[in-house]
Amino acid sequence: MLDAYVRPILDPPLDRAAKALARRAVSANAVTGAGAVLGIAGCVAVALGAYEAALALILANRIADGLDGALARRTEVTDLGGFLDTVADFLFYSAVPFAFALAAPERALAAAFLI
Predict the structure, then answer these.
(1) Distance of alpha carbon 49 from alpha carbon 64, whole angstroms
(2) What does the pLDDT look like over 3-26, one tens digit per residue?
(3) What are the structural domain ranges in the chain?
(4) Among the four residues 8, 10, 47, 61, which has the most C-beta atoms within 10 Å?
(5) Contacts of 100 (CB under 8 A, 6+ apart)
(6) Comparing C-alpha atoms, which of 83, 35, 32, 86 is closest to residue 57?
């Protein structure tokens, strides 16, 4: 929905970063995996109440999520990569409300509804 407005801003720096990673033979799947780790670490930070760290980690996760696709398009798009990206996204999207439920158990019902 917002892609038409945001992509012209985000795509050029993501493409430059993807070009640099491709020169270093970094795979898109490795970026997906690193992004998943960053996202789960961000959720752990949320659960522990370290919201500033959580924000930084989640932003890094979102950047990695955009970067893996740019890198795949520059190198090689694979079915496995698309599958890993989707699984990582769903894991992250489920972990976020769960982390907030752990951080504030009195609001766990609302978090459970989002999952």
Answers:
(1) 23
(2) 789 888 999 999 999 999 999 999
(3) 17-114
(4) 61
(5) 46, 47, 107, 111
(6) 35
- Residue 101 and residue 111 in contact, taking contact as beta carbons nearer than 8 Å: yes
Q: Identify the three-state secondary structure at position 54.
A: helix
CA distances from 67 to 31, 81, 97, 100 (A): 7, 13, 24, 26
Query: Could you tell me how many residues make up the chain?
Result: 115
Whole-angstrom distance, CA of residue 111 vs CA of residue 27: 34
In whole angstroms, give the CA distance from residue 58 to residue 97: 13
**Confidence (pTM):** 0.90
The architecture in CATH of the region 17-114 reads: Up-down Bundle (1.20)
Q: What is the pLDDT of residues 60-103, one digit of tens each?
A: 999 999 999 999 999 999 999 999 999 999 999 999 999 999 99
CA nearest neighbour of 26 among 56, 54, 63, 67: 67
